[in-house]
């Protein structure tokens, strides 16, 4: 991997991780379109550690409060009635589907699931679903339930396929379940922490394996790409929370549809290799 590719992919990851447009799809497309190769699922998982570190810092007070409530609830029955204790459990429960499926389908995720035809179709299909959820859902609640945790956790697991979008899938599910946009976005951020950190740490040995899948990045390149993703990811979190409190997701819906159609056109004309 060249230094330019590492920097560009770090920028792309930081800008798109929290937007409902699929960061893995953008890293996949950018790497193939401009650099002629696939950086690989493992490299993508590792640089996502930078964006998730941004979540940890941005929501540090919330995370600290949830952890404290969870530990208190383990030993104090009265503390189990608090919303923070329940939310902490919802994050744990919602993280189970993607953890299990990510482990069981690891080889598929790193190979056939990265086919750009699949990515293009997922961009369009889940863009349409997001548009329906944004327009038809009630957006009435800001308190999560166990049903919300399970539903959004299952939706997050679908993001193992590039093009679905982890944030897009969880936000769409949250809206269909009746949450308002800001509540769905906040839970989406928290829900990503265990899964993404787990996937990133689990993938580090694969990236360091010089005979592994994808173009090979050096350790300094991975560090720089992850740091760039962290800085831009932090800025994006703040912007997105402000944006969704006042606007619909329509701009992201149209963007996904246009990108998916453009990608299909390029694949049809053999301007991009699908694998």
What are the salient characteristics of this protein?
single chain, 275 residues, 12 helices, 0% strand, globular
Structure description:
There is one protein chain. The chain has 275 residues and is mainly α. It has one domain (3-268). Helices cover 75% and strands 0% of the residues. It has twelve helices and no strands. It has helices at 3-16, 23-35, 41-58, 60-75, 83-104, 106-110, 116-136, 146-158, 166-176, 181-208, 219-244, 250-268. The longest helix has 28 residues, at 181-208.
A few lines on this structure:
This protein has twelve helices and no strands. By secondary structure, it is mainly alpha-helical.
Question: In terms of topology, how is this protein built?
Answer:
Layout: H1 3-16, H2 23-35, H3 41-58, H4 60-75, H5 83-104, H6 106-110, H7 116-136, H8 146-158, H9 166-176, H10 181-208, H11 219-244, H12 250-268
Helix pairs in contact: 1-2, 1-11, 3-10, 3-11, 4-5, 5-8, 5-10, 7-9, 7-12, 8-9, 9-10
Strand percent estimate: under 5%
User: What sort of overall outline do the alpha carbons produce when their principal axes are compared?
Assistant: globular
Topology, number of strands: 0
**What distance lies between the first and last C-alpha atoms, to the nearest angstrom?**
18 Å
On the 0 to 100 scale, the average pLDDT is 88
Q: Major β-sheet, in short?
A: none
Q: Mind telling me the C-alpha Rg? A: 18 Å
């Amino acid at each position: 991997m060249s230094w330019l590719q590492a920097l560009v992919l770090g920028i792309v990851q930081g800008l798109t991780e929290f937007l409902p447009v699929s960061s893995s799809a953008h890293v996949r497309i950018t790497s193939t379109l401009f650099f002629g190769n696939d950086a690989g699922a493992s490299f993508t998982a590792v640089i996502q550690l930078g964006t998730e570190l941004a979540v940890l810092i941005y929501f540090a007070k919330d995370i600290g409060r949830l952890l404290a409530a969870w530990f208190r609830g383990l030993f104090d029955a009265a503390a189990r009635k608090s919303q923070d204790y329940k939310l902490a459990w919802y994050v744990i429960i919602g993280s189970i589907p993607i953890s299990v499926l990510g482990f069981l389908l690891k080889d598929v995720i790193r190979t056939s699931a990265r086919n750009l035809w699949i990515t293009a179709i997922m961009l369009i299909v889940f863009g349409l679903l997001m548009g329906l959820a944004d327009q038809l859902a009630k957006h009435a609640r800001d308190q999560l339930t166990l049903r919300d945790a399970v539903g959004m956790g299952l939706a997050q697991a679908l993001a193992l396929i590039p093009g679905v979008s982890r944030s897009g899938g969880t936000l769409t599910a949250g809206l269909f379940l009746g949450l308002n946009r800001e509540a769905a976005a906040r839970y989406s951020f928290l829900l990503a922490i265990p899964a993404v950190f787990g996937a990133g740490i689990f993938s580090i040995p694969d990236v360091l394996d010089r005979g592994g899948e994808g173009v090979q990045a050096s350790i300094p390149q991975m560090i720089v790409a992850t740091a760039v993703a962290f800085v831009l990811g932090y800025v994006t979190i703040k912007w997105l929370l402000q944006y969704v409190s006042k606007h619909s997701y329509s701009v992201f819906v149209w963007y996904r549809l246009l990108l998916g159609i453009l990608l299909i056109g390029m694949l049809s004309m053999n301007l991009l290799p699908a694998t």
